[in-house]
Design brief:
alpha/beta, six-stranded mixed sheet, 19 helices, 14 strands, 42% helix
């Protein structure tokens, strides 16, 4: 499998090279040269397959012969060592819970898969290191920190916007030490992401062997396909069309879902549910892609003004807006609407959501008006405990502290404050 840059001005590369480089030399995101649909027999028997078997079939064509099959199966087993329950919330609506991993966020899967791929590729490099440089709007940082902790040959530098992640999210990315370093940026997520992209293209930093663990990296992005296969397996027996609503910030998760559909997974429709950072909903309304500076919200992991992965979605539809609109809708919601939804889900159904899941629920309810006989699934991308400052007062409850959070909540935060690219460059050396 070869990968090409979506800016079409860089050489094609292998899976290994795409993972290590992260971003192409022309600033473009990598995209697979071919996408081959899975055989219909795979979907016929999917209920009898384990999650590990499903994931292997979904990902193997994208890895090719860069990682031997048995090693790839081992990486997948280590990646998927927790559950992905599909929980009924109300008639016709389910929550796909993606927060049962070590940092209680959906990004654990991509971070664990990528870290193990990179460790495999580095196994014979005794005298050099890769530096994983990543920007986070919330959960990416913690997932990457956990996934790469103590991985040989890899240093991790995480940039996050000061005061714009939750306390627990901040603890998860600033307390682990060892090969993990956190930079607290005076700005918003888009500033962090811009610094990371600039560093990748800075030839004076070539000796740092920089790569990304954001969803711009194919090894972080592609494994997110697995979730949609798992949900289909759980709900297939109901023999109904499926509508997925993804809380969307950088659009990596929903892009992976569309990739799953291109592999043959029978998904009726996708909903990208956003907060007031509504670049994509506005694009669908007026056909103009007009990114704006991100705004802070209570669903902070979606505070992205210029979602990187949207270009991949456009590529999946060959920039055919009509075909895209047939499969895809996008709606935005305010913090006030999000809080109302949190309370409604809890008071009516007894289900404790968090702000991102509540936004996903709102978008799903709206879209299901057009698909009255379908089953709706909204993605719960993080555990409510990560947003206890919002969830507890909104619902009038006290959340128990899970073991994964207890292990970091009382640790001392260690971060370095920066406000410019020059300071990042100086830190990297």
């Amino acid at each position: 499998m070869k990968y090409y840059s979506l800016n079409h001005n860089a050489p094609k590369v292998s899976f290994k090279e795409a993972v290590i480089q992260g971003l192409a030399s022309d600033k473009g995101l990598y995209f697979p040269e071919n996408i081959t649909a899975l055989d219909a027999s795979f979907f016929d028997k999917i209920e009898s397959l384990s999650n590990e078997e499903i994931a292997f079939e979904a990902i193997k064509q994208f890895v090719g012969d860069e990682i031997p099959a048995e090693k790839l199966k081992e990486i997948i087993a280590e990646t998927l060592c927790f559950d992905f329950p599909v929980v009924k919330v109300e008639n016709g609506i389910y929550s796909l819970e993606l927060f049962h991993g070590p940092t209680m966020a959906f990004k654990d899967v991509g971070a664990r898969f990528m870290s193990r791929c990179l460790a495999y590729f580095n196994k014979d490099k005794k005298d050099s290191k890769n530096t994983v440089l990543v920007a986070t709007s919330g959960d990416t940082g913690g997932a990457v920190a956990s996934g790469f902790l103590s991985v040989d040959g890899v240093d991790v530098v995480i940039l996050y916007p000061s005061g714009k992640v939750s306390d627990i999210q901040e603890k998860q990315l600033t307390t682990l030490g060892q090969n993990i370093k956190a930079l607290e940026v005076d700005g918003v997520f888009d500033d962090c992401q811009d610094m990371v992209k600039k560093a990748f293209l800075d030839e004076t930093l070539a000796h740092k062997n920089l790569t990304s663990a954001n969803s711009i990296n194919i090894a972080r992005w592609l494994p997110q396909m697995f979730y949609f296969f798992f949900a289909y397996k759980a709900l297939k027996s109901q023999n109904k069309h499926l509508v997925f609503s993804c809380p969307s910030g950088n659009f990596g998760n929903i892009c992976a879902g569309i990739m799953a559909k291109k592999l043959g997974l029978p998904i009726e429709h996708f909903v990208a549910s956003t907060n007031v950072n509504d670049t994509v909903p506005r694009f669908l309304e007026n056909g103009k892609y007009d990114p704006k500076p991100s705004k802070a919200t209570i669903s902070n992991a979606m505070d992205v003004g210029n979602p990187s992965n949207f270009i991949r979605i456009q590529e999946l539809y060959n920039n055919d807006l009509k075909a895209f609109e047939k499969d895809f809708s996008s709606y935005s919601y305010t913090d006030e609407e999000t809080l109302v939804a949190l309370k409604q889900i809890y008071n009516t159904d007894g289900y404790i959501a968090e702000p991102h899941g509540a936004v996903g629920y709102l978008g799903l309810k709206k879209e299901l008006e057009k698909h009255p006989n379908a089953i709706g699934i909204f993605l719960e991308t993080a555990h409510p405990i990560k947003f206890l400052d919002v969830v507890e007062p909104a619902l009038g409850i006290t959340l128990p502290i899970p073991a994964q959070i207890e292990s970091v909540i009382n640790e001392e935060k260690v971060s370095v404050k920066i406000s410019s690219y020059e300071e990042l460059k100086a830190f990297l050396g």
